[in-house]
Structure formats: structure tokens, C-alpha cells
Amino acid sequence: MNDQIDTPGQQTVTIKQAIDLAVQHHDAGRLPEAESIYTQILLAEPEHPVALHSLGVIAHQVGKNDIAVDLINRALVIQPDIVEAYIDLGNVLKELNDWVGAIENYQKALAIGPDFFGAHYNIGLTLQEQNRLNEALESYQKALAIEPNFAEAHNDLGNTLKELNRLNEAAACFRRALTINPDFTEAHYNLGNTLRDMGEIDDALVCYDKALTLNSDYIQAYSNRLYALKLKMGITSLEIRSEAEKFGQYARANAKPFSNWSILYTPEKCLRVGIVSGDLRNHVLARFLEPVLSNIDKSRIAFVAYNNSFVEDEMTAKLKAYFALWNRVSGLSDDRLASRIYDDKIDILIDLSGHTSRNRLPVFAYKPAPVQSTWLGLFATSGLREMNYIIADPYIAPHHEADFFTEDVWRLPEAFFCAAPPDIPVEPSTPPMLKNGYVTFGCFNQLAKMNDGVVEVWANILQKVPNSKLLLKNVDGDAMKSGVSARFTAFGVQLDQLILEERSPPAEYYSAFNRVDITLDPFPYTGGMTSLDSLWMGVPVLTHCGERVGSHLGESIAVNAGLADWIAPDNASYISKAISYASDFDKLAKLRANLRNQVLNSPLYDAPRFARHFEVALRGMWYKACDRATQASRNTA
Fold first, then answer.
1. pLDDT exceeds cutoff 50 at 415
2. pTM for this one?
3. How far apart are CA 177 and CA 181, in angstroms?
4. Domains of the chain, start order
5. 224 Cβ contact partners less than 8 Å away, ≥ 6 residues apart
6. Is the pLDDT of residue 8 over 80?
7. Measured CA distances, 509 to 18, 285, 445, 594 (Å)
8. Is residue 99 a contact partner of residue 126, using CB atoms and an 8 Å limit?
């Protein structure tokens, strides 16, 4: 065994000195220099565990994960007590989606050192990515008990609590992370998301702005800032478009768009339609997507999935059967995902997320398909000039607002979505007011939609309808209940008029509608699936006419459900309609008795009818693309 080697600079050193020099290069990010020295060490001593382990780490850093697994395993065979090697091997396996193997290696590290902070922390990260949130919570707490000043662990603990809807606790974690590191960009961003979900929109916007001040390229912050603006009163359509265009500008800055696609522009061919989403699972979006997938003519449309989530469940398994090709793309960089879509020869690429979580909108800036459209998700303009269309209907996107979209608006003739009825055996009841003797209003939307303007209008209704009550769901925890109560009592509402309940399992959620006489739609961000659920349970929804782009969903649902008279043009009308409907017990009872059948026979639930409209829209987009390709060919001839 040779205990001396020549370094790349032809300096002869001992192996120990070489290791120290390689570590210096490695820590400074000079990976080629470090790799060269570690390789020289292995030529002299082929079973040197530190060199093997370190080369494995470098292989992981440059994306050669299979090589990394082999090298780190070899190091551990030689020296099985290298705690850091188990951690690094776990990190590689986690990136390869081998959750079991990752956790096993983290646990091996803990068997050597039970108080090893990194092992607990990485177990938490792995469990969180699998949506095993309560287990992740426990691991983060163990990590922080060992190292209480690790800002990243407070941040990740906050994200886990947020996913569990423990928003006040989540906010406290992000604030603790920022106390430790005031310039922690991601913590500012995550605090903004949490405050947004708590309905504290102005404070959320401050957080997003701080994150963008620290990192002007933080594109997710632009996206979530747009989401927050959709919830805020007093924002104009022009402001929303302007903010969206900032997002598009930053997305475009990092992209290298494709301009030629290896596809045939044949008008009547079977189209390859790509679906990009992080919600192909037990999620509200799946109830809108499944009716299309299950009713489309598969000889005319072949769907290809790009699933941007590690979480898969029984709904994922159901959806997979409808796709010709399924790709799990979470963890792929934007350029690699764009290249994969391009190589898959996609004709039409559809975004299903908009500016919501797990979106991959920056990929659309690469233009990996000749036709690109956004649909569902957050109904708002993407801000991307590479996005050709936004799929809408005449009500959600009226013609006079067309200029506030960066996309061309492709309007379906009736509703812009169709839902699958819930697979829950809960039947509508008679109106509870007949038994109670008073009217119960309700809203089961997320509290982020309940801004101060909404609270004031609802409080006015509660004061003018004698003995009335308001049932709100998704009010989780005592702190949130106290906050909601305080907001209403500030407008004169009595505490006994409020029924505040936490989120509940599906059967209990649907049963809760049987305790509501009239659903009140928030504004300007109205309900979507919650409104459809209310109608399916026989409870009519009073909605507010939108005053800006992206605020008309309630109108689309009402018109398509045959309830156009339940649309209020302004606050005064909203209040007067609520009072009028609440005073006519007989009329409400008659409406409720047949409302489920009414909506099931409407465009909102008629899946074959909607699928035909959707297929016609896709084919129409494709015809236009073929015409453009033909014209371009003539121009170059």
C-alpha cells in the first residue's frame, strides 16, 4: 500500500494530506479538483472508505445517483460505522424515490448515534414528501430538541403544520426560523402562504415582497403573490394582469423556448394531449378531470400525464388507467421536464394548476408543445405569452374582460368544468329551518376567502335575519376560532349566532350541509367545488357578481345550475336577496326537494356532454395550429 500520492499539481503528499486537500476543494465547490484527488487516493488505496464515500457524494451532486449508491455502499462495507455515509446514502435514495431505503439508512445512522440531528431531520423530510405528516412532525420535533437553532428545521416543521391546517402553529415556526435567520427567503415565502390561508392577505403580501427583495428570481413567490391578490378586495383587473406579466417575464428569463416540433400537423390525427399537474390524486381537481378522461374518445385523444407529486393514492391509480403514458416528474428541473415533454411529441400541453401549489408554469415558458393551454387550477391569467389559451366559458370570462388575459380565451359553450358526483351515500334532508324555526346560513370554503368585506356583508345579514345563525367549516383550533369570532363580533354579531367547526371526513362534511338552509358564497374569490357540493346536497348558493377578471366562477355555476336569480349584482342586493330567500320557507323547501336532480341534469354534472364540448375545443385549437403550420410552410417555400 502506497501512503503517498501525487496531487494534480504534481505535489507528492501523504494520503492524509491529500484527503485534507480534497476536502478543501470539495467544501469550496471545486468538484473536479476534489474528484481528481479522491481518485488518485483510490489508485493508491482502493478500499479507502473516506475517498469512496466522498466520491459518492460528488457523484450525487452531479446527478449520477446510481454511481453514488454503489460508491457509498462500498465505503460502508469497509467501514460500517460512518454515520454521515448513511445520511448521504439516504439522501441519494430519497432522490431516487426509494423512501423505504432512505429511511432505513437514516435509522442505521441513529443506531450508531441516537442523537444525530441530521438523521431525525432527514427522516422528517422523507416522511413529509410521502404525506406522512404526523410522523414527519415527530421527527422534526426530535431534531429540534437536539439542535433548537436550526432554522431550516423550523421552516420544514412549519410546512408540515400548515399541511395539517394548524396554521397558527405553522406561522409561529416560520417566525422562529426568521428570528434565527432574518434573511431566510423561503421562510418569508412560507409565512406569506400561511398568512394568506389565514385570511391575512396584506401581511402575506408583505412577506412575498420581502422574499422577492432577498431573491428577485424567486418565481414561486411571484406565483403565490398572484394567488393572494385574487383574494384581496380592491385590486383591479389591470393590476392582476400586470403582476402576472412579471411572473411571465421571470419565467421567460430562464427558459430557452423550442420553436420547431417533430410532430405531424394532420388535422384529424389522434392528438397527444399532455396534462401537467401536482394534483393527480385525492384532490378536488381529480373530480373535475375524471369526467373528461373517462368520456373522451380515446381514438381521437391520447392523454399523457406529467404528475408533479410524490404522493399517489387510490385516485391516482384510477386516473392512471385513462392515460396512454404516465410520467412522475416531481424533482425534475424545468429544462429537463420541458425536454421530456418535447421528446414525447405532445401536440397540446395543458396546465391544470395555474398559480397554485405544485404548479410547473415555468416549464410552459420553454414552449415544449406547439399548443399550450391553462385550465382549472386558479382561474386567472398565467402571465405567460407562451401560453396560447385559457379554457373558460361565457360567464367566467365575459368578452369585455378578454384584454386582461395574456392568453386567448377559448370559451366552452356552457360550463368550463364538469364534476363527478361524490361517491358518498348521503342524501339531502328537508331544510333545517322547518325544524329549527330559524335560518342557518353556511359557508364551507377555506377561510382565506373570507376577507373583511365578506365578513361585514355576512354580519349585516345575520343582524337583519332574526335568530339566524352562520355555520362555518375549516375553522381549526381554538386560536382560529377566537380570531373568526372576534372578526364577526366587531360588526355586532352575537357569539351564539356562530357555529364554528373544524374540517371533517367526507361523510361528515356532506352531512353538515343538512344543517344549512342557504350557502353564502364568498367574494371576490368565490367557491368552486364547495358550491357544487352544496348544490348536490340540495342547498342553494347565493353568489356575488364578479367585478374583475377571475371573480365570476360563482356566476358560471349559478347560471349552469339554473339558479341565475341567486346572483347578486352588488353588496346591497346580496344582503336583500339573503333576507328575502331566508323569509320564504316554502319556496326554499320546494327548491331543496328537487335541487340535486336539477344540478345532476345540468352541464355541471353531465360528463358525456362536457367531454364532447372539451374534445371540440381541443380539436379547434389543433385546427388553428395546423393552419399556422401550413401558412408558415408556404411563407418559407
1. yes
2. 0.86
3. 6
4. 157-254 (1.25.40.10), 271-411 (3.40.50.11380), 433-600 (3.40.50.2000)
5. 189, 192, 193, 196, 208, 355
6. no
7. 64, 18, 12, 21
8. yes
